[in-house]
Amino acid sequence: MTPRVRFAPSPTGYLHVGGARTALFNWLFARHHGGTFILRIEDTDVQRSSWEMVSGILDGLTWLGIDWDEGPEIGGPHAPYFQSERLERYRSAARELLAKGLAFEDEGAIRFKVPPGKTEFTDSVHGPIEFDNEHIESFVILRSDTHPTYHLSVVVDDIDMAITHVVRGDDHISNTPKQVLLYNAFGKPAPAFAHVPLIMGPDKQRLSKRHGATSVTEYEKQGYIPEAMFNFLALLGWGTGSNDELFTREELIHRFNLEGISGGNAVFNTEKLDWFNHQHLLRLSDEELIKRLGATGLRADTRSAAILSLLRPRCKKLTDFAEQVRPFFEDPSGYDPEGVKKHLSTPGTADRLRELRKVYEQSEWNEAALEKDLRQLAESRTVKAAVLIHGTRLALTGRMVSPGLFEMMVLIGRESVLRRLDRLANSL
User: Fold this and answer.
1) Which candidate in 178, 188, 204, 209 is catalytic?
2) Crossing angle of helices 226-234 and 270-283, rounded to 10°
């Protein structure tokens, strides 16, 4: 059976991490089996729903590269289903159950009659699950204002859209027996359910805003790239059966299966996300990395590929490049006070920097020559080479730590290096 799956978020203004992981699992399952992935917006709460709210979800899915296959008219990525456009369909379904004697009116609302016995279903993650119906009260399916409840609308939509599998969070397990009862009442088979573990913060509490950014678009702003977030989320609660961790989308599509979903909660580890992001940044071509940095407003010129090659090992996020690249284009606005105290307080430091500046006026401008000339000057003045190295690094960057000094000097250029050495010497 070719699967038909759906992601059905409520419009909250953004796509949170848990919702993104759910969408991703459904999308991977559909793509692995050549099935259909449907996006359905649960916007029947007119007071909370707006296009601005919906766009936050669409932006998050688009950034992650999760597309959808079908819509109410032309299909494609610009036509999700909206429950607010299907209200009459839900009212009709409620009246159908009422006419069959499977529901009853209660103060203007319509409630479903819960039959005696037990409700059972087999979960693809947790196995057989059973609920005693005597613990399920007759529940509202159509409110007195004629708006449907979640249980009715989700079941009617799943039936109409021929959904075969429902992959969602563990917090929905308690909803499932009511929905199974409704499928039975409509004379339709329930889809296969797979309830996936919730995502927890490092404190083992459910991930929330107090743990930091929970919107995937916030992570985009922080400098994460979609390939890394996609890879990271896919492995939160799902395993490949191997020790491998780094995957492309295509590799994850090829490997994904419901059997790999764990029954235990997954922990969102930002340090691990940073590692994934660094690894995927290293995989980007120079051209692609320059393109993405350009989209963040970072300037680029003919030196960019060489500069980025030098910075890649040091940068975990796109935002790190913005900070690390500044010395290649701008003179430092100041000098690290600790560095000044530690490396520039020795008498004669300014004179040695001026001497180095004169040497560099005549140096061949390559890494080997620049290092050789600095070490020869240090030896002739009976000081450690580190004294000149640290002083030069502060002159060029204003910092105590940087990429390789001599590689930087080549890329910064002779004129800028001489000017910065002058500026620091004169400030001393």
Assistant:
1) 209
2) 130
Q: Angle between the 150-160 and 176-185 helix axes, to the nearest 10 degrees?
A: 50
Active site residue 317: no
Biggest alpha carbon–alpha carbon distance for the chain: 102
Whether residue 93 contacts residue 156, with contact meaning beta carbons closer than 8 Å, is answered with yes
- For 155-198, the pLDDT digits (tens) are 999 999 999 999 999 999 999 999 999 999 999 999 999 999 99
Q: What is the mean pLDDT of residues 284-305?
A: 84
**Which residues touch 266 (CB under 8 Å, ≥6 apart)?**
197, 198, 199, 200, 236, 237
Tokens of 291: 């393109």
DSSP annotation of 144: T
Q: Angle CA(63)–CA(66)–CA(70) in degrees, nearest 5?
A: 130
Tokens 């992981």 belong to 21
Instruction: Determine the pLDDT at residue 212.
Output: 65
Residue with tokens 């399920």: 136
**Which ranges of 194-269 would DSSP assign to H, the alpha helix?**
216-221, 226-234, 249-255
pTM value is 0.89
Listed in sequence order, the residues at least 6 apart from 208 whose beta carbon sits closer than 8 Å to its beta carbon are 201, 214
Burial call 236-262: b when 16+ CB within 10 Å, e when fewer: bbbebeeeeeebebeebbebbebeebe
Per-residue pLDDT of 305-343, as tens digits, reads: 899 999 999 999 999 998 888 899 899 999 999 999 999
Q: Contact 234/301 with Cβ under 8 angstroms?
A: no
Give dist(CA 341, CA 205) in Å, integer: 45
**367-380 and 349-362 helices cross at what angle (nearest 10)?**
140
Q: What is the pLDDT of residues 78-110, one digit of tens each?
A: 578 889 889 999 999 999 999 999 999 999 999
**Tally of CB atoms within 10 A around 211:** 17
CA pair distance 119, 177, nearest whole angstrom: 6
Q: How far apart are the first and last CA of the chain?
A: 77
Instruction: Provide the β-strand partners of residue 149.
Output: none
**403 CB-contact burial (10 Å; exposed 0-12 / middle 13-18 / buried 19+):** buried
CA dihedral sign of residues 271, 275, 276, 281: positive
Q: Which two tokens stand for residue 88?
A: 């009459």
CA distance 403 to 396: 11
Task: Compute the distance between CA of residue 10 and CA of residue 44 in angstroms, rounded to an integer.
Answer: 9
The DSSP symbol for 335 reads -
